[in-house]
Amino acid sequence: MSETVILGKKVLAPDAAPAPASTFFIFGASGDLTKRLLLPSLYNLANEGVLDDGFAIVGVDHMARSEEEYRAYLTEAAADLPGVCDTSGNTWSWLMSRVGYVTGDFEDAQTYGAIRDRLGERAKTTGNAVFYLAVAPRFFATISEQLGGAGLLKEENGAFRHIVVEKPFGTDLPSAKALNARLLGVASEQQIYRIDHFLGKETVQNMMALRFGNGIFEPIWSKEYIDHIQITAAETVTVEQRGKFYDATGALRDMVPNHMFQLLAMTAMEPPNSFDADAVRTEKTKVIEAIRHIKPNEAIGVAVRGQYRAGFVNGQAVSDYRAEKDVAPDSRTETFVALKCFVDSWRWNGVPFYVRTGKALATRRTEIAIQFKRAPGVLFRHLPTALKPNLLVIHVQPDEGVSLRFAAKVPGRKVRLSDVEMDFKYADYFKAAPSTGYETLIYDCLCGDPTLFQRADTIEAGWEAVEPVVEAVTSGFDDVQFYSAGSSGPAMADVMLAQDGFQWLPLEREPVP
Ligand code: BG6
Predict the structure, then answer these.
(1) Which domain holds residue 217?
(2) 67 Cβ contact partners less than 8 Å away, ≥ 6 residues apart
(3) Which residues pair with 58 in a beta bridge?
(4) Among residues 162, 228, 259, 395, which one is catalytic?
(5) Which residue has the higher pLDDT, 357 or 474?
(6) Is 382 assigned a catalytic role?
(7) Using 50, 70 and 90 to split pLDDT, how confident is the model at 13?
């Protein structure tokens, strides 16, 4: 990417070459993910000019429709998302002229015959294909095996065949292992793209630039200088229409082994020797493998689960989680989880990583906060309040940026200190292109770059680390704590940190004045 300046802001000019021509099959062509995320992302990529002229989309779904009807469906779907796609512009017509449709049941071999025919028709343009599984998890292995059985995953004459698998990838360690085994039975690891959409977020990718592209952070990025780390993904949304999935899953499985551990891995990984996909993924996997495994009976004290009760989020009334649609009235499923983790490596030995995530909380905020050790106090011990530790916060979303808290002298004749904050905001420096976060991931998959996708061993290491907590939960060892919707989560989560002499950064806070 080259740098240009527009309206006083640095803009990354899209000098990325168009991804190689390919046919992009979407299984689950009428699903919510296709409508809310894939369609806008493909539109944004087309707008950027990084889709090749030979690119085509083929929706695959059991609902019988003509291609014309499918294009009309997508145009209507886009109209439901105001401000996302301009359906009257050239980009939209360009994209729609490349859309086809195959009606078929995912479990029926005939569907795959129709896909083979479609690829045959496209053979003069390209043999490359991406099979995007935007479907319920129970179909991941079935579709992959059907594709394999129909010979559609054979990479011949230089053409690639990639499968994209959405989350959740398994529901525990054995099911993740079983799914990996079935996928790897029909495709090689290089062909499988396991999505974790947090890795498509610009600020998450910026972690590598921040840590390894600057001389000042890495030397102090260790147990010698860092006291503890807090990783937060707080949401204001409730379970909305996803009660059925969510009640069987819970915040721990939904967010921790994947998104939260990816943030942790980005924070704690050793510098890789290159941006080569396996160099990066190996370093991240080493961190996740090094997360201390606890025993199920040790879960109390290092894990707190919460469930929201009625309350107000941003002034809107929210009902009890147990009263949500498709949620059991006596559900013990957590909508909040806080964990205390240790990475048992030389760099991090003894440094707690506190991880929390939850729904119906006071504010939406995803961030990584690195708290440094306090300065020795001899010079300032006459001051009424103790020195505060330095705090580096990576704001993942919203208001993407990085801030650093430090002490400064208050002007005047007496020595008094105050906390101040240096604040870098992406929006102040860069003009960002509209993005759902999936654009980078789709583009990378089309280009054959799996760096931002999860490898089989990474996923299994994540499940292995949370397994004892999952076990403690399923054996009824711990119990879920209640918290009011619109609060910061259950009080026990505060107690967990207080016992170590720390406190969570408030979810609702003003920047330091
Ligand atoms: C998904 C989870 O993977 O991530 C959802 O299933 C969660 O429950 C979502 O709301 C959060 O993603 P984002 O990008 O909105 O922070």
Answers:
(1) 199-369+454-498
(2) 99, 100, 101
(3) 25, 100
(4) 259
(5) 357
(6) no
(7) very low
User: Of 147, 166, 185, which residue constitutes the final position of a domain?
Assistant: 166
Choose one of 166, 191, 225: the last residue of a domain. Answer: 166
Q: How far is the CA of 347 from the centre of ligand 1 (A)?
A: 30
> Which of 259, 399, 440 has the most ligand 1 atoms within 8 A of CB, as the residue to mutate?
259
Whether residues 155 and 203 fall in one domain: no
Q: Do 6 and 87 belong together in one domain?
A: yes
Q: What distances in angstroms separate CA 142 from CA 61, 85, 160, 226, 402, one per listed residue? A: 14, 33, 21, 46, 43
Atom 6, ligand 1: which residue's CA is nearest?
Answer: 254
Distance CA 119, CA 29 (A): 17
Q: Is the CB of 235 under 6 A from ligand 1?
A: yes
Q: Which residue has the higher pLDDT, 260 or 431?
A: 260
Q: Give the residue from 156, 70, 146 showing the smallest Cα distance to 115.
A: 146
Binding site membership of 334 for ligand 1 (Cβ less than 6 Å): no
Indicate whether 175 belongs to any domain: no
User: Is the domain of 204 the same as that of 137?
Assistant: no
Tell me: do 104 and 239 sit in the same domain. no
Name the percent of the chain lying above pLDDT 70: 96
Burial of 251 (0-12, 13-18, 19+ CB in 10 A): buried
Q: Tell me the helix, strand and coil percentages in the chain, rounded to 5.
A: 35, 25, 40
Any ligand 1 atom below 6 A from CB of 254: yes
Domain CATH code at residue 274? 3.30.360.10
Ligand 1 contacts CB of residue 478 (under 6 A) = no
Residues 246, 162 share a domain = no
Is residue 422 scored above 90 in pLDDT?
yes
Q: Report the number of distinct structural domains present in the chain.
A: 2
Q: Residue 58, Cα to own-chain centre: how many angstroms?
A: 26
Q: How far is the CA of 188 from the centre of ligand 1 (A)?
A: 28
Q: With respect to residue 184, please indicate whether it lies within any of the assigned structural domains.
A: no
Q: State both tokens at 176.
A: 């993740």
pLDDT single digits (tens) 226-244:
999 999 999 999 999 899 9
Structure tokens at 34: 């296709």
The verdict on 76 and 152 lying in the same domain is: yes
Are 38 and 158 members of one domain? yes
Pick from 36, 171, 244, 255 the residue to mutate for probing ligand 1's pocket: most ligand atoms within 8 Å of its CB: 255
E strand or H helix at 145: helix 140-149
